[in-house]
Each structure stands twice: as structure tokens, then as C-alpha cells.
């Protein structure tokens, strides 16, 4: 087995039929493959972590120099040593020609957080599941057959318009072997379009990093990716309506688990499944904290108010000691209670609060805290924000401390500008009580 040199590569003659490979003595598995038609390619043969022999085509002789091919072979062997499979990855990239194939590749290899303190970490399972579902329900039906490289900003704009107009909306039952019939509800509309176009932008950014496409067409499309409107907050009067609805429904026999979950959304500002999926080992009643091991932003410590502690204490007294969940499922004996999806619309209808979601309650707690004079740092602590930027949406609230300070200072200056003197200050002492 010779060491492959430039002269040897140039001297290799094509076989009468098929192909022949000359292997290198310096790099194990590295070789030059010569085809009957005269074409020559650099290749690498290796075993993957499953023990299967794989062949990776590095590049054509003439397109790559021998030294460049050796460097690529060394990199590939380094990847193999880490448990990767370069040939399989290259094959997957070749298969990702259509948008549908690209979506499926992204579902396997691309579900990572794109920004923030968790950038580069895998998405949370539920976030990943929702992301893939949106892509499969909206993107695949409308763009799936297109070549990924051919998609342009105009295609993205038409896609967003179609989703907004409900072209991908459906409500149907699907029967899967060995599984119960599933009801699939896909809603279109403006909100769905904004979410899925953000997902699609992440898919094309992933494809660009992998060299599958040259550019991300979403970036140049004239589409709206954010709400561009103020967050919805409930006033205290609206919260009173919500509380009255809870009481009326509970008196009528509505499941108390669902209503207590809803109450805790309002009392803690926690995210939907942080409460629905709460476990007793995350509840510290003695010190008054929720100690989440894993949330959207990682580990999180949230303070509990008296009302929330009292609700949880009552639940603890009657808990099922065999189950870890604060609100265990009532059927199948596994997991946490999931009935709030059915009951929440009934609550909002009863309270006459259309469009209010569980996440609205999270924003409402932040609003009440900020309007009560709490510093934004404290508001962020209540909500479990990982960075101050997430809490800035509450900075505009009319009772924010900085705004009250501006009122006080501004009034003094306005009085001076108007020629009015400052109010007389009378010091207190023992003689005047």
C-alpha cells in the first residue's frame, strides 16, 4: 500500500469498467477512487459508532488539491472519533433538497435555542414539539414540495398571507394503528402566521449554516414577525371578574384542580405548564418559594405570596402521596392534569374577558407589581426572568417608580416656571408634637 502523492494521483489509469480505489499508507481509510470514465475522487472509508463501514466522498481530484483532501479526511476522522457520522450527514444534506426534507432535517438536528442566555442549548421538549408541529401543519402543505434553494422572499410573503387567511386551518380526527383516535386542530390567522414564519426563518438560518441554501429568504420578506402591540394586562377590576367566575364555576361543580391551576397562574405569574406540571419537590412551603429545576430559562426560584402558599398548603394536606404532581392526571394514572385547555375558555366566557389567555395572567401580575411601586428588578424576580430586557415591557406602567419620580420632580420645576414658590416645609420637633 503506497503513500499517495500528487505524481501517483496523476499516474492512476482508469479501469476498463466500474471503479478502482488506491488506498493511502499514511492516513487510514484515505484513498483515491478512479472511475472507468476517467473521473477521480478522494474518498475516506471508516467505521461509525455502530460498527458499520461508511464511505465518504471528500471531493473531485482537481477541485481539491491532495493536501486539501488530506486535511478534510483528517477533520472527518476527528468527527468520527467524537461519535459523528460525516457520510450520513452529507447524505442527509443531499436529501434536504425540498422544504419538506429541510423541515424534517431541522426536526432532527436543528432544534436549539437561537438567542438569550440559553443560546445553543437544546429547546425544551414542549417548545420543540410545538415548533415542529407548526412547521409540519403550515409550512409543509404550502411550501413542502418547493426546492429549498428556490424559495424567495415573495414565496414567504404569499405563505404568510395564506396562513393568515386560514388556508392551512383544519379540524379532523386521525386514526393511528395501536393508538386511540386523535383530534388534530390547526388554527390559521395572524398570530399563527407570525409564529410559524419565525420558525421558518430559524429553519432557513440552520440550512444556511449547513451550506444547504445560500441565503435566508425570510430575512428579506416584507412580513411581520412580532406583534408590534402592547401586551394585554388585566386591571384589578377585571381580575375581580375572573375571581367571581372561578367561584361561580366551582360552586357549579367544575373540577377544582383546573380552577386552582388557574388561580395559581394569577397569583404567581408562572407560565402555563410551570403550574400545571408542578411537582411537590418543587414546592417549599416552609420558606415560601417555588424551586423549579428546569424552566424556559433553566433553574428558577420564585417567591410565593401568602394566598398562593395557602392554596398549595390545602392541596398538600389532601395530596396523593403516590404521585409526584401537585395536580396529577385523573385518567391513565400518569402525568399531570391537562383539563385546563377545556375549562379556560369557559372561565373567560363566564368572566366576559374574551381573548384573555393564561399568559395574560402572567403579564397582569407583572403589571400589578410595577404599578404598586416595585422596582423592575423585583418584578423580574417574581416572574423568573433571566435578563432585564424581558421585564422592560412593564417600564411604561403609569405607577412605575421612575415615572412617579418624574412626576414629583417635573411638578416642582413646573411650579417654578409658573412663578410659584415651593410649598413651605414645617420641621417637626418635640414642642409641636
H/E topology pattern: HEEEEHHHHHEEHHHHEEEHHHHH
The low-confidence runs, each spanning 5 or more residues with pLDDT under 50, are: 423-433
Helices and strands: which structural class?
A: alpha+beta
| CATH architecture group name of the largest domain | Orthogonal Bundle
Task: Looking at this protein, list some descriptive labels.
single chain, 433 residues, alpha+beta, Double Stranded RNA Binding Domain, DNA polymerase, domain 1, hpI Integrase, Chain A, 3 domains, 4-stranded antiparallel sheet, 3-stranded antiparallel sheet, 15 helices, 9 strands, 44% helix, 12% strand, disordered C terminus, Integrase_DNA-bd_sf, DNA recombination, DNA-binding, DNA binding
List the helices and strands and how they pair.
Blueprint: H1 6-11, E1 19-23, E2 30-35, E3 40-47, E4 53-60, H2 66-81, H3 86-95, H4 99-109, H5 125-143, H6 153-164, E5 170-174, E6 182-186, H7 190-209, H8 236-251, H9 256-268, H10 272-276, E7 283-284, E8 289-295, E9 298-303, H11 306-317, H12 340-350, H13 358-371, H14 376-383, H15 401-417
Antiparallel strand pairs: 1-2, 2-3, 3-4, 5-6, 7-8, 8-9
Pfam family, one: Phage_integrase
InterPro entries: DNA_brk_join_enz (IPR011010), Integrase-like_cat_sf (IPR013762), Integrase_catalytic (IPR002104), Integrase_DNA-bd_sf (IPR038488), Integrase_DNA_bind_dom (IPR025166), Integrase_recombinase_N (IPR010998), Phage_Integrase (IPR050808)
Family: Belongs to the 'phage' integrase family.
Write a structural description.
InterPro entries: DNA_brk_join_enz (IPR011010), Integrase-like_cat_sf (IPR013762), Integrase_catalytic (IPR002104), Integrase_DNA-bd_sf (IPR038488), Integrase_DNA_bind_dom (IPR025166), Integrase_recombinase_N (IPR010998), Phage_Integrase (IPR050808). It is a single chain. By secondary structure, the protein is α+β, with helices and mostly antiparallel strands. It folds into 3 domains: 6-84, Double Stranded RNA Binding Domain (2-Layer Sandwich), CATH 3.30.160; 96-209, DNA polymerase, domain 1, CATH 1.10.150; 236-401, hpI Integrase, Chain A (Orthogonal Bundle), CATH 1.10.443. It contains 15 helices and 9 strands. The chain has helices spanning 6-11, 66-81, 86-95, 99-109, 125-143, 153-164, 190-209, 236-251, 256-268, 272-276, 306-317, 340-350, 358-371, 376-383, 401-417, and strands at residues 19-23, 30-35, 40-47, 53-60, 170-174, 182-186, 283-284, 289-295, 298-303. Strands 1-2-3-4 form a 4-stranded antiparallel sheet. Strands 7-8-9 form a 3-stranded antiparallel sheet. A two-stranded antiparallel ribbon has the order 5-6. The longest helix is centred in the middle third of the chain and has 20 residues, at 190-209. The relative contact order is 0.06. Mean pLDDT is 81; it is low at 423-433.
